[in-house]
Amino acid sequence: MNNCDKAQPGTFPDRSAGVPPAVAGASRPRFGEVTIHDRGRFPHWEKQGAAYFITFRLADSLPKSVLEKIAGEGEDIVRTAAHLRRNLSSDERTKIQRLSTKVIEAYLDRGAGTRYLRQPALADEVVHALRHFDGQRYRLLAWSVMPNHVHVVVRMLPSWTLASVVHSWKSFTAKRANQILHAHGTFWQRECYDHLIRDEGEFERSIRYVAENPGKAGLENWPWVWVCGRDAPTTAGGDAGVTKP
Predict the structure, then answer these.
(1) What is the mean pLDDT of residues 233-241?
(2) Right CATH number for 21-61+115-229 from 3.40.50.720, 3.90.1150.10, 1.10.260.40, 3.30.70.1290?
(3) Would the pTM count as exceeding 0.90?
(4) Which of 12, 95, 227, 236 is the least crowded, having the fewest Cβ atoms under 10 Å away?
């Protein structure tokens, strides 16, 4: 059973703007100094003990041209700030994050690629990996395993980094997926999207997005979606939902 955070003084109030009550009672992340890591095409912002909205996706879920376009626009912003010998502004960081989010999510929800995660055995492996260290390295707050990508809202626990946790999820599930598929090669795209959640509004929007994503993508009765405070779904045990025409 998932180990959700209990409400404490100074955490989110009961009003949740449409977010399930159990989610509104989850512990509000505390923010310290931001550390910027360059782990691929985009810079990644991390804070000790912070909460994140994370998306990682199958290797064939996005055309290379889309990634290059987004990366190029983001690199232009970073290069301009570096030329002026200053840090990225809040508006510039937001623009880079939005470049990633809007374009990428639109492609992902179209269901491009092999969509291996429609297979119950593969989706269950991802869920197992997410839950395995819940309460030890992080607190899961919401997740959805979509046909070609995965969304997670998670709060990191002390001494554990976002990079190490995401690497463990992807490494374990890639090996298991290739075993199940009798395949070799790259299962996940190297780059993942992660957004540092800075306030209550972002937290609530992230939770709502994860919870509603299957429905918005046309997946009816999708079993692989969970929000803290609700009963976690078991295995699909059959068809993984029907895509609307």
Answers:
(1) 38
(2) 3.30.70.1290
(3) no
(4) 95
